[in-house]
């Protein structure tokens, strides 16, 4: 029961954490009526919660593996009570900065769920599961929409204090419903860091998430005040539009994870960064509210899908160091939301518009698109390199399900099947029917336990002729030690073993 309940409970925890994380940006238009601050100071007030919300994600992922999600969520919500109250009675710019910094704990808890939840599900569901959990981002939309409405009725200070009740409630929920027996991982922190920091994929995934999730955070904290000042919308209308952006990004994230479970993740990321490039270029031309809305919605869709895809890739490549890898990638995503509001405000003060900032986003997205294309074809070339084209030994590579991916020329010469006939087929097309089911059961058992099988096997050529082969099968593993493909190498030993029998 407790295991099945963890996905909805942890998702709701993230909703609450993100609701608290964006209190200041959602209520800033109300707060500045009582606390006089400049436009530059307002940018810092909205950006500061992102700092701790990003940097804490690294230790949060590691600590989740040590102590479990239940304790981490409870402690985080208890700690948040203090900055929430402090912000509610703030009277100066420095009060908002200090309180806002520690509100970042609400954003840092993202690492808890993405580290904990994959333990409860099969690997082929990690993309969708992390996508569902990531939908907890909707907490930012709830605050962006509801907080201004409530503040209009009871004032911003009392509105913020209401969040203390919500935090206390979820401390109780986690105490009674959190999993007390979550699987722990006790690998030392430095050992985990050493296991991932030299892997270029970690930093590429971090850069991709810097753009996809960073854009989500940046637009979340930047839109409410921008829409009021630039398009002269009222505070509730601006909050509603921001909530729509957040909701679209959030609800499409599980779809991105679902796509990554079923299709090649890098191909999906190509479409994601192409969308970012075009949308950011549109926004750089300072369009009307209608075109601006189209650009923002395109960013929302691309960002949501990208967020889901990336957290399918991270546990796939870093299964044994998921806590620290999730934390690092998530931290970079959070930092991606810290700089844009500050940069955009500074550029606006210098130039009177935001064009340069959005054009920079389009160019970074374009560079990411090029890198993703390179990664995709590099992986294909790496696979081709494993097939030794000039060897006299027949070779074939299959996926996890046994479907043939590629063969070499020697395979075609030995079996009579050319590459077009072989790719997409199953190796049982070579079956001679001379072996019992127990023979193949033993073969697959050895592959599962040792990652290796070698022995004699009777097969059949395309023309129906039987031959005795010496076959070696190796499991090909990824960086996390998980089998992703099988490579078979064989030769015809019929003439040397005329006396062989099954």
UniProtKB/TrEMBL annotation:
Localization per Swiss-Prot or TrEMBL: Cell membrane
Pfam entry (one): MFS_1
Stretches assigned to the Major facilitator superfamily (MFS) profile domain: 5-380
Source organism superkingdom: Bacteria
Domain PAC per the UniProt entry, residue ranges: 453-502
Stretches that traverse the bilayer: 12-32, 38-60, 72-90, 96-117, 129-154, 160-177, 202-223, 238-256, 263-283, 289-311, 323-348, 354-377
Keywords carried by this UniProt record: Membrane, Nitrate assimilation, Transmembrane, Transmembrane helix, Transport
Topology of this chain in the membrane: Multi-pass membrane protein
Main location (coarse class): membrane
Domain PAS residue range list: 386-426
Entries under InterPro entries matching the protein: MFS, MFS_dom, MFS_trans_sf, NO3_transporter, PAC, PAS, PAS-assoc_C, PAS-like_dom_sf
UniProt similarity note: Belongs to the major facilitator superfamily. Nitrate/nitrite porter (TC 2.A.1.8) family.
Protein name, as recorded: MFS transporter
